[in-house]
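so i finally got all the pieces together for this one. its two components total, 1123 residues if u count the protein bits. some of the lines might not be protein, just check the labels. i wanna see the whole assembly predicted at once instead of chain by chain like last time, that was a mess tbh
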Amino acid sequence: MSDTSRRIAEVLDNRRRLLPAVDDEILRWEQTQQLLVRLGQAIDAVGAAQDESLAALGLNTVDVPALRQRVSEVLAALAAVRARVGRHTMNIGVSGRARNGKSTLLQSLTGLGDDQIPAGAGVPVTAVRSRIFHSAERREAVLTMHTEASFCAEVLAGYHEELRLGPPPETIAAFVAHDYPAHKEDLDLPAAEQTRLGPMLVRLREMQNSTETYRQFLNGQTRVIEFADLRAWVAYPGIDDPRPDRRYLAVRDARITTRFPTATVEDLGLIDLPGLGESMPNAERHHIAGLENDVDFVLNVKRPDGVNAYWDSHDAAGLGLICQAAGAAPVRDFAAILVNSGGLPQENVDALLSAIRDGVNENAREAAFPVIVADVKSPETVQADVLGPVLAHLATALPRMDTAVIEHALTLGTATREHLGAVAADLLATLRSVLTPTTVDLLLARAKGLQQQMAGTVQEWIAGLEEKAADSYEDKEFYDRAQQLRDDVRDWIVDGFGEGEPAWRQRAVSDMRVDDSPSPFTVRELNAVRVEIARRFGAIDDLLERRREEFWAGLAEALGARLVPPADGGPRQALADLAVRLREAPDPCPVLAEAVDHVLDVRLDYRTRVMPRMRTALSLLRSERSQPPAVPHNDEGAGTLFTHISHLAREAAHGAAKTLEQEPAITAQVLLAFAEQFEDQFIRSAKSEAEFRRLAEAFRDQLWPDELSGPALATARVQHLRSVLRDLTTALQPSSDDGTSR
Amino acid sequence: MNPAFKAAVLGPTRVGKTTLLTAILDETKQMLAGTGVIISLDERTQRRVRTHRQEMQQALLQREFNAYALAGTQDEAYYHVSLQSVADEDVRIPFSILDYPGKWLDPDFLDTVADGKRKWRECEEHIKASVMLLVPIDASILMEAETPPQRGAVPGLLQFGDVEEVARKWASTRNLAEHHHEPAVLVLAPLKCEKYFDDNGGWGRDADELRKRVAEWYGPMLDIVRGEATQRDIKIIYAPIDTYGVVELMEADWPRESDGRLGFRAHYRIRGDKTTPSVKAAGAVMTALCQCVVDGWAVAEGRVLAARQHDYARLVARDRERKGFWGTIGYYVSGESARNAADQGKTAMEITQIEQRQQQVRKSVEALAATAYDPRVEPWS
């Protein structure tokens, strides 16, 4: 291994060691950029809080977009560093206008032929710019194909942009169907632009007309191509081809690996840079992107043949781009002008060298751009006069350039960091003048507010219950239901207790004769009728249950859907869930939970509440009170007995119905009592205030998913802004390995 | 014609005024048994009472009846009854009790009655001159009203507004200077109470609730009466009365009437196999009425003594001209009634006997007045 090769290998090795630190730095600045986005949003939010005292702080004078622009510049510098240190090879870019011998130079350097690197003396032939890497073992050409989407976005979009044709099509079908202007005069451009961009329109239409030749390759896959077949993929078709094959349009990237016959450096790459002056959209942008991202050194090839012997404005523009791409690296380290002298008169070469000396290097003793004169067609000459000196130069220049680029990025980063830090410090200092409540203050205020709010809604709920408990309140639904039950029972009685009066009387006669007395039958019947009436009035249970559900629903509504979210099991389940959550909160609220449990324990069922009171009315049907008449053991006697028992039953049913009619008022009173007890325990008990604080803390996210309004809103937003600024300040702290990573 | 002590029955249609008067007469008859004094009715009154008793009897025989099925009073009636000596029908203390159609309390209805305004003026005059205002109350309406709509129908069904207005006039008249020393008794008499008591064959336990509801509902009327009687006291007696005794409210309905208001229908069953009424506490009314007379006697006799110095006869004569309470009392206290009874040509022995009989009637009235009220009955003032 030569000294040059060893030194270049060291450079590449050093770069690889830097990579993690660079990536970390990029990550930090990307985070910083995100923080600046949040900062802008936080400042806007504070402004939107419409708080006069906050408006007076002048937060809106902070130019966040400008801060972000500065961070973008740091990121751009770091991206350049990343591109540089991320390369596994040392790449030499070959630049220059078309037909100056770039492809010939590449052929000489790589040993590849016209099929792999098309070269021609007439029209441009290189359709796809290849990246060619040296490898002693491998020899392959790998093409990465466009997808339809990437083709539209990366190829067609450029044409549409330059030609001002509006948004590009998003599919090939849409591209085929697109109606493009037939003539350059139809373009919506000034006349001069129409002339300049006319060829681009022609090329676009050619692409549209030949989609069938490349459409099938737009699959995003990679293809390994035999070297012998490569030309069809990377060269323009001949101009006389009646059906030009434009499959090159499907190629997104071409990477060729082969053994360079003249290479003395292992990790060497040659990048065929897009030619300046070609009829392709955004040529300059593509060119500079290639320079910045892919190459360590640029050979700008110039062949002074015919009228091309002078250093004209196009050449100057090309060099200008190279200077721009060099960035922080010294230009003379980054690029050289290669005068392709093969087969040309010496005076042409001299004229060009003179023009370069006068026009480019301005007679400086230390030339800005090194100039190499060589016949690029000769591999030996290229090795001896071009590659050898360039590699020797890079062996010493690469570390210099790397250092310069990295220092530039670090310097820019440091300055930006200091600026941002100062801005953040100023903002924090400004915000310190704003007296906002502490977290504890906010918690206490929220707890108090919640308690007051719930006191209000619970009282409204109770007011509704009081209305229902008032003497004048008419629970028509309940009364109608009670009346219906009473009518049903009465019909049952009058209709002969469900079996018809004749059948009843017949049975009575039979029993009286068997018992030789009406008494046993009368006792049995009275008992049966009493039980049946009580059972039939039990149908009121559905309404009582509904009243209870309404009661719980009213409470759940009073407590709010955020504290008592709806549950599948209805309001009772929702309240039961609340009681559990209150108990199982990190700081339990047992008193509040008990209050909820208490209202859940309300019982309104018929058997518990109504039937005991109904007993008095139904006791009329007890044998000891019925005063049964002495009757003969025949049908007439049975009739008298029927009248007697049915009258008692009707009176008992009437009394029972009256009891039922008292129920709405009593039920309302019961529910009101439960509600008032709940209010006393939940809102007003000695421990309520403390437990509301716990409630506010435990249910904070549930109760206040968004910030509240007014002062709380402003406070929350100021706190958020403070938080963002603190994060920003932290992110701006220098990393622990800063300085050592250089 | 002899002057009579006046009383008036004030209540709405179908509350049971006639039934009440019948019950009062029946119980008074029992109370006078063996005293040598009977309660006698003039012919017209006898006819009315007889007819009413027959209707009641028929209802009881049916085992089940609607209290409102009995014919209501269609025309005003003056029940002329007397506490009379068995031996001499001329020796008596007469009472005139006005029973007028309850509907007359409604001025709109009165407009539809032939000569209604004149008749009502007569009724009003009688009411104003009455020492007793008897207010029968349909206890079942008060006690069966449970729901707000039912409670809301109570004032209309019991015609509170009209009853209060008449009571106000009666009280204000009683408050006039010329009536200051006359008795004034207001009797609140809940009827159809059988279901709510357990002292007359029933199992009811609602006597306290009935008292409470009467006090609540009629409290405003009592306030009006007390408010009008600024110069005197008015005696108020609460007397829940069983007019049938053997019946019990079985069902009550509150049907929607054609005018949109709630009506009231009560259905009664007969307890056991009873077919005759078992009146309870109705005698309290006669007792109270007799107390008025006895109280009047005491005052009047004081006045007779005073007249010896202050030309009392002239005073009495003026009272008599007005046929007021004192005129009536004076008629009996001054001996005029005895003189009238002792026709010219009677022997001294006969005159003595007449005086003895008058004394007997007087003792009977005093005995009635001294009769203890039924335990249900309570003085409220």
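The two ends of chain A are 27 Å apart (CA to CA).
The longest strand of chain A covers residues 251-258.
anyway lmk what u think
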